[in-house]
Description:
Layout: E1 6-9, E2 17-18, E3 25-28, E4 31-34, H1 37-47, H2 53-74, H3 80-90, H4 101-115, E5 118-119, H5 122-133, E6 137-142, H6 147-156, E7 165-168, H7 169-172, H8 179-189, E8 196-200, H9 203-211, E9 216-220, E10 236-238
Parallel strand pairs: 1-6, 1-8, 6-7, 8-9, 9-10
Antiparallel strand pairs: 2-5, 3-4
Helix pairs in contact: 1-2, 1-4, 2-3, 3-4
Amino acid sequence: MKKYDAVIFDLFDTILDFNFNHLPLVELKGFRSRTTSVEVYEEFKKVYPQIEFSEFYDPFIKSYHEFQDLKLIDFKEYPTRERFILMLKMLNIGPVDQDSPFINKMVVAHMKALASCVEYPTSNKLTLEGLFDKGYTLGIISNFDYSPTAHELIDKFNLRPLFKEIVISEEVGWRKPKSIIFEAALDKLKIDGAKSLFIGDNYSADVVGSKALGMKSVWINRRNEPDNDLDPKPDYIIKKLSEIRDFL
Length: 248
């Protein structure tokens, strides 16, 4: 007998994992990191060849952090192109048309590089297929600021047949833990939050957001973060997705 009317998942670092070792290693000013900066710069220098990579790199990194901080103010989702517009302002380049092909080419280069880092562990695949075979209604709610890449990866790994509804934050305009994005998924699935289970790796986005809607929650605590004083408390805490088979 099914315990829930629906089981809803976060997408990245829950179903699909990022392995940033697939990105080139950048060594600059004594620091080493793996980012999409090399791929984005290839598009950038076609328009601004006079700006060296060393000058480009700091605004590339700073714009990422400011972009992420902006999203935390009220959990509004901003499209990826806004990050690169911010980067250009830091480089004293502008004004730039938000729909400019140049911006779009940098976005696509960035996302293509990110997508190359995404893996679908076999254990996750078997877990999802097992739940589907048991008759569970499955859904996805993902914070992601460029929905075409999210959907491309969903299709690449043949996830779409398993999921009745897929909700990406860019398409809704709001990010988890904002209630609006959870409500959008529950409305599409036509289910009551109290009869559903949400599974994700980010406590603040996934557990706090889902519990606010009365959903049961599973926190995938990959990093062994302290869990004694959590409020709200997840209904289950696991280390990896395959462990949900123990209680579903």
